[in-house]
């Protein structure tokens, strides 16, 4: 045995077991040899064999065998068995060594870090967040409690989700579900029977105080709803203090500028960028009012020449109208909850006008007061049946849930709606896509089609696409957009195009010409004119009907239908062209051969050409 071995007795026993295993040709020889080499090379002295587990090759079983061997040795020689140390400190005494040697330095294994439990912090504007802050307004000293209905009414303004209806019609849980979490964490207690009343426990009050101190600092007032932070009013209404210049810089989405000017498009880009950032603080910016040189026809309403010819518009001065949001009455949460959207908008300070819209789901109008509405009617502009002249502004929104968007792509309504939105003449189109629970199979099947449709709207159609996670987010977005448009338009003049100007040419052509001449001006038409030119059945020309007939064929987009109409102007011309062809490939490939030199996205494949020939030929 080497003289420098710190534990010669333990090493001797390991060597005996190693030799026995070698004689029996046992596989245990390798185990004992590895343990023996580690024990022989170890410079530390062990008071008890269990301490040898730190060595390479000595596990719990081998150390237990060494312990039994040591106990047998002590019994035979009348030596007391050394106690098993519970702590990691070692003494300088050597129990197993025959000769005393110098004490080795103590070595301690690294202490295990004890992870401290983090205090509970609810997510901002979640159900638990709102419930704790609402209960935090009660009197703590008197142990005041509140009923469920009163608590939900108090907490609803502080939460993004609803306490009364699920955010998704396919789900059954509301924001009140968070109360179960608070009770399990013993932050909220109840009392009373059969009617429960809720109050904060001592731990709950600690969480409430920390939340208030974090949110407001020394001022413990409750926070304002998300997205409605106010700037100093300076005596003006809060709706005029919605920022158009973000304090925090963010990457803005790329929007393609149309050919009819860049001034108003840049304004729209700033609007939608502002509305896409829920947590930015916006500063008030007073828009510049353009100076128009015009000839007076009325003290307030003036006819302005858009160009040296007779293209006249009616100028509606700022301050004589109010921007209102018009919501399609068919936009409902469920068939049994039809007033949810309008009721939630009213809670956010926006009172929508409910009516059936000929196009889109939401649009914004300038509602003129009764005095100037009469003047507009005398100028043959305001022809609204209710007597209030309403001017359609330059923004319209189409809302689609994911399941509805998939259905419109399948049956062709998606391309038809995009075509009508483009034809309406409204410059700024927002396409809002709302998430919805889809099965894994359906999501995988139509995932690429959805991505392609969204990309096409942004790149090809120049629509602004906004995606929301639930209906409550959509409602808050509509409220912010309404307040932003109020601050933008109510301080500017609106140039109204008389209805008689659309008799000779299309609306889009007139609006494009005026916007190219004066890109800084805001142009609008009356709601009656907008309804007449966007209606699906009224005032439709043969060309419109022909294009819709072509687009009923799956695969024929609006662009392809226009290219087909240019070559065969009428349905009769297309039918006669097919009759003049012989059956077979000559007839099937007629459309694809004529459009073979068109740009790729307007090119008609041979399979689609054969389908058109089957229908029209």
TrEMBL record:
Q: Name one GO cellular component term.
A: nucleus
Ranges for region Disordered:
74-117, 217-245
| GO biological process assignments | DNA catabolic process; double-strand break repair via break-induced replication; mitotic intra-S DNA damage checkpoint signaling; replication fork processing; resolution of meiotic recombination intermediates
Needed co-factor(s) = Mg(2+)
First-level EC class: hydrolase
Q: What is its EC number?
A: 3.1.22.-
Q: Which UniProt keywords apply?
A: DNA damage, DNA recombination, DNA repair, Endonuclease, Hydrolase, Magnesium, Meiosis, Metal-binding, Nuclease, Nucleus
Domain of life, per the record? Eukaryota
Annotated coiled-coil positions are none
Report the residue ranges that make up the ERCC4 domain in this protein.
Answer: 324-437
Subunit and interaction comment: Interacts with EME1.
Functional note: Interacts with EME1 to form a DNA structure-specific endonuclease with substrate preference for branched DNA structures with a 5'-end at the branch nick. Typical substrates include 3'-flap structures, D-loops, replication forks and nicked Holliday junctions. May be required in mitosis for the processing of stalled or collapsed replication fork intermediates. May be required in meiosis for the repair of meiosis-specific double strand breaks subsequent to single-end invasion (SEI).
Q: PANTHER family, from UniProt? A: CLASS II CROSSOVER JUNCTION ENDONUCLEASE MUS81, CROSSOVER JUNCTION ENDONUCLEASE MUS81
The Swiss-Prot or TrEMBL record describes its family as follows: Belongs to the XPF family.
What is the name listed in the Swiss-Prot or TrEMBL entry for this protein?
Answer: Crossover junction endonuclease MUS81
Give the originating organism.
Answer: Capronia epimyces CBS 606.96
What lineage, starting at the top, does this entry show?
Answer: Eukaryota, Fungi, Dikarya, Ascomycota, Pezizomycotina
């Amino acid at each position: 045995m080497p003289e420098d071995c710190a534990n010669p007795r333990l090493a001797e026993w390991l060597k005996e077991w190693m030799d026995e295993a070698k004689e029996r040709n046992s596989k245990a020889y390798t185990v004992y040899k590895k343990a023996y080499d580690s024990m022989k090379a170890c410079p530390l002295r062990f008071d008890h064999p269990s301490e040898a587990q730190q060595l390479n090759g000595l596990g719990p079983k081998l150390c237990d065998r060494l312990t039994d061997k040591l106990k047998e040795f002590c019994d035979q020689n009348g030596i007391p068995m050394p106690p098993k140390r519970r702590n990691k400190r070692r003494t300088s005494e050597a129990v197993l060594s025959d000769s005393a040697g110098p004490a080795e330095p103590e070595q301690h294994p690294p202490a295990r870090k004890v992870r401290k439990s983090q205090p509970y912090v609810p997510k901002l504007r979640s159900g638990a967040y709102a419930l704790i802050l609402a209960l935090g307004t009660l009197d703590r000293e008197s142990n005041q409690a509140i009923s469920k209905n009163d608590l939900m009414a108090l907490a609803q303004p502080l939460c993004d989700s609803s306490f009364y209806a699920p955010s998704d019609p396919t789900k059954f849980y509301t924001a009140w579900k968070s109360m179960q979490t608070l009770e399990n964490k013993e932050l909220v207690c109840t009392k009373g029977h059969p009617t429960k009343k809720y109050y904060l426990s001592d731990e709950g009050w600690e969480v409430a105080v920390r939340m208030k101190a974090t949110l407001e600092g020394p001022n413990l007032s409750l926070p304002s709803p998300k997205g409605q932070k106010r700037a100093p009013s300076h005596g003006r209404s809060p709706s005029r203090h919605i920022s158009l210049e973000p304090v925090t810089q963010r990457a803005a989405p790329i929007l393609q500028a149309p050919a009819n000017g860049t001034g108003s498009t840049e304004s729209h880009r700033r609007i939608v960028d502002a509305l896409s950032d829920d947590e930015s603080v916006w500063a008030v910016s007073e828009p510049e009012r353009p100076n128009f040189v015009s000839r007076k026809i009325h003290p307030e309403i003036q006819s302005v020449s858009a160009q040296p010819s007779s293209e006249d518009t009616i100028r509606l001065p700022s301050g004589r109208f109010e921007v209102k949001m018009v919501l399609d009455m068919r936009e409902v949460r469920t068939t049994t909850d039809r007033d949810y959207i309008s009721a939630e908008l009213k809670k956010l300070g926006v009172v929508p006008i409910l009516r059936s819209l000929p196009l889109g789901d939401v649009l914004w109008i300038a509602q003129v007061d009764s005095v100037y509405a009469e003047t507009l009617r005398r100028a043959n502009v305001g022809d609204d049946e209710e007597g209030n002249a309403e001017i359609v502004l330059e923004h319209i929104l189409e809302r689609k849930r994911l399941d509805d968007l998939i259905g419109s792509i399948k049956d062709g309504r998606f391309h038809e709606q995009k075509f009508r939105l483009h034809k309406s003449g409204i410059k700024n189109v927002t396409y809002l896509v709302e998430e919805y629970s889809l099965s894994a199979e359906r999501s995988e099947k139509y995932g690429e089609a959805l991505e392609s449709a969204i990309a096409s709207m942004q790149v090809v159609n120049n629509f602004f696409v906004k995606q929301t996670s639930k209906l409550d987010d959509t409602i808050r977005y509509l409220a912010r957009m309404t307040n932003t448009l109020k601050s933008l338009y109510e301080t500017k003049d609106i140039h109204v195009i008389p209805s008689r100007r659309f008799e000779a040419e299309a609306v889009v052509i007139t609006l494009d010409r005026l916007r190219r001449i004066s890109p800084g001006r805001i142009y609008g038409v009356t709601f009656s004119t907008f309804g007449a030119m966007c209606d699906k059945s009224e005032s439709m020309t043969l060309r419109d009907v022909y294009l819709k007939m072509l687009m009923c064929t799956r695969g024929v987009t609006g662009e392809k239908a226009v290219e087909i109409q240019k070559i065969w102007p009428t349905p009769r011309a297309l039918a006669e062209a097919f009759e003049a062809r012989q059956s077979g490939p000559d007839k099937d490939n007629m459309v694809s051969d004529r459009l073979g030199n068109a740009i790729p996205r307007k090119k008609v494949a041979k399979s689609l050409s054969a389908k058109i020939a089957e229908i029209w030929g």
